[in-house]
């Protein structure tokens, strides 16, 4: 889970206030002490923590909370609002040029994930109807140009490169002309990084900035580096005047301090967050949704957006019709399974559901392998067997188990569950017909 350690500690600290009918100043003080410790342990900048705690305390010890019928809930509401403000209040969108192409300059230290993030951003913009071009301006790191070309192939986006003999400034300048000629409306410049900030790196980036005048300068920051990420952000912002931050490895074992500190320290928004290694796992950063997830309140809007992006509306209507007529087959089941997998890892989806806190997710063993096994079993069936599972006898079960690399017991379990589901759908269908006859109301299936 994103911010797992911090989320658990904050939820525990604030959970103690929930059941209390009345709150004293001491109750609030004790809760804030735990919140302060949780934030500091998560590597949030100490100045940011001090300001945050003071603001929450000032609001929480006010008349509005103390006289409320649900003071504990009011305090949690205040913490949620202040966390949202801390991370930027609302999403910050990319600034596109009035006359294409829009130029986006990617910068950051070596190892932060600039090249992969450039590809992810290109893929995201391509989905939105843009025609991006990736530009290889890292001429120093061995195989950096080749890496960007591989990334470009994977996301099916062209890569502009003129080798490592030209200067990065000349490459960046030439890429703009190339993009204009070839109808690319977004130019994403992948610049060189260093293991640490140095004058040569900054001078080169300043020269590229002055030459191509980018609409966006995005700093790619590794969320797992904690306070170092804040220091890096300050340095790059001071020299280049960054327009936003992309946080990578937010799905890793990150303490989360970077995300909570960068906005406050640099006054520049977090625009995107990478939540996985796949090229479609770059998301627009929503401070309000992230605050809700940290406090165990879920993130229903992101869940809906993921579902809308992954599920085919036409297929959903066809499925609804099949369910009504009890014609649901393994073919349909496989199709739904594959669409669900496109939404991302199950653990990430569960943390978006309100009421499921970090402690519950920790104890919940989400076995992604089981879904893989189910998919393999269905794919090992013939078309006839998927449409009419009643034909699957003992010898067929043995063949399906062998073909899917599973056991006969697993095949039997899936067949049993499928039959039980069909029986349940039949009952619901019968109930719906009865209710329709009596003219009361219609069930939503």
Automatic annotation (TrEMBL):
* Biological-process GO terms, alphabetical: SRP-dependent cotranslational protein targeting to membrane
Location of the AAA+ ATPase domain: 100-301
| Oxidoreductase keyword on record | no
Q: Which domain of life is it from?
A: Bacteria
Group of enzyme by EC: hydrolase
Q: Where is the SRP54-type proteins GTP-binding domain?
A: 101-296
Keywords recorded for this protein, A-Z: Cytoplasm, GTP-binding, Hydrolase, Nucleotide-binding, Ribonucleoprotein, RNA-binding, Signal recognition particle
Q: Annotated Gene Ontology MF terms?
A: 7S RNA binding; GTP binding; GTPase activity
What SUPFAM superfamilies has UniProt attached to this entry?
P-loop containing nucleoside triphosphate hydrolases, Signal peptide-binding domain
EC number(s) recorded for this UniProt protein: 3.6.5.4
Q: Which segments constitute the Signal recognition particle SRP54 helical bundle domain?
A: 2-87
Compartments where found: Cytoplasm
Q: Which NCBIfam families match?
A: ffh
The entry's function note states: Involved in targeting and insertion of nascent membrane proteins into the cytoplasmic membrane. Binds to the hydrophobic signal sequence of the ribosome-nascent chain (RNC) as it emerges from the ribosomes. The SRP-RNC complex is then targeted to the cytoplasmic membrane where it interacts with the SRP receptor FtsY.
PANTHER family cross-referenced by the UniProt entry: SIGNAL RECOGNITION PARTICLE 54K PROTEIN SRP54, SIGNAL RECOGNITION PARTICLE SUBUNIT SRP54
Concerning HAMAP family, the annotation shows: SRP54 (MF_00306)
The family annotation for this protein states: Belongs to the GTP-binding SRP family. SRP54 subfamily.
Q: How is this protein named in the record?
A: Signal recognition particle protein
Q: What lineage, starting at the top, does this entry show?
A: Bacteria, Bacillati, Bacillota, Clostridia, Eubacteriales
Please state the gene responsible for encoding this protein. ffh
């Amino acid at each position: 889970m994103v911010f797992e350690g911090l989320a658990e500690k904050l939820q525990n600290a604030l959970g103690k206030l929930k059941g209390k009918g009345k709150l004293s100043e001491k109750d609030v003080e004790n809760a804030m002490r735990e919140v302060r410790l949780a934030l500091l342990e998560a590597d949030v900048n100490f100045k940011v923590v001090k300001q945050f705690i003071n603001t929450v305390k000032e609001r929480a010890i006010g008349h509005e909370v103390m006289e409320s019928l649900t003071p504990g809930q009011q305090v949690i509401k205040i913490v949620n609002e202040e966390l949202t403000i801390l991370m930027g209040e609302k999403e910050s969108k990319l600034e596109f040029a009035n006359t294409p192409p829009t130029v986006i300059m990617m910068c950051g230290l070596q190892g932060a994930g600039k090249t992969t993030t450039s590809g992810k951003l290109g893929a995201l913009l391509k989905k939105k109807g843009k025609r991006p071009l990736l530009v290889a301006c890292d001429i120093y790191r061995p195989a950096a140009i080749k890496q960007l070309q591989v990334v470009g192939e994977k996301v099916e986006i062209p890569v502009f490169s003129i080798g490592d003999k030209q200067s990065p400034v000349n490459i960046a300048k030439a890429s703009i002309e190339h993009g204009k000629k070839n109808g690319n409306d977004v130019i994403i410049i992948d610049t060189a990084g260093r293991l640490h900030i140095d004058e040569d790196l900054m001078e080169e980036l300043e020269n590229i900035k002055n030459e191509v005048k980018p609409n966006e300068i995005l700093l790619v920051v590794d969320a797992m580096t904690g306070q170092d990420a804040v220091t890096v952000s300050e340095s790059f912002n001071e020299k280049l005047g960054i327009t936003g931050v992309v946080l990578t490895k937010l799905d890793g074992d990150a303490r989360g301090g970077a995300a909570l500190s960068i906005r406050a320290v640099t006054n520049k928004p977090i625009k995107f967050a990478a939540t996985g290694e796949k090229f479609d796992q770059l998301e627009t950063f929503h401070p309000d949704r992230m605050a809700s997830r940290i406090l165990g309140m879920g993130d229903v809007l992101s869940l809906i957006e993921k579902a809308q992006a992954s599920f085919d509306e036409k297929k959903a209507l066809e499925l609804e019709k099949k369910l009504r007529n009890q014609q649901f087959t393994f073919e349909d089941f496989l199709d739904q399974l594959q669409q669900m997998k496109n939404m991302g890892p199950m653990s990430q989806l569960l943390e978006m559901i309100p009421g499921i806190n970090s402690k519950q997710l920790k104890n919940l063993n989400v076995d992604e392998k089981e879904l893989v096994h189910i998919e393999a079993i269905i794919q090992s069936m013939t078309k006839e067997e998927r449409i009419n599972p009643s034909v699957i006898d003992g010898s067929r079960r043995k063949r399906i188990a062998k073909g899917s690399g599973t056991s006969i017991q697993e095949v039997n379990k899936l067949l049993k569950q499928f039959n039980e589901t069909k029986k349940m759908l039949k009952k619901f269908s019968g109930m719906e017909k009865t209710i329709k006859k009596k003219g009361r109301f219609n069930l939503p299936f």
